[in-house]
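User: Can you help me understand a structure? I only have the sequence.
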Amino acid sequence: MSLEKTKEAYRLFWLVKGHLNTSHQCILDCYDSYFKRVWYNEESYVHEHGFEEAWQKKKLKSKEQ
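Assistant: Let's start by predicting it. Here is the structure, written out as tokens:
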């Protein structure tokens, strides 16, 4: 999976759950259902605040492992 698609999966997880404290596989597994959930929620963009910072931390953490 490309970095762009992975980031989108993480972004959708963030929009629904508000955190990234789970496994990479769990986030990827949730993608399809969370895509549908966010698609019909026109206010989901409001919950995007803080995602970029969390994404950068998650990327840095995964590089260290």
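Now, to help you interpret it: The chain has one domain: 3-64. Residues 9 and 59 are 13 Å apart (CA to CA). Let me know which part you'd like to focus on.
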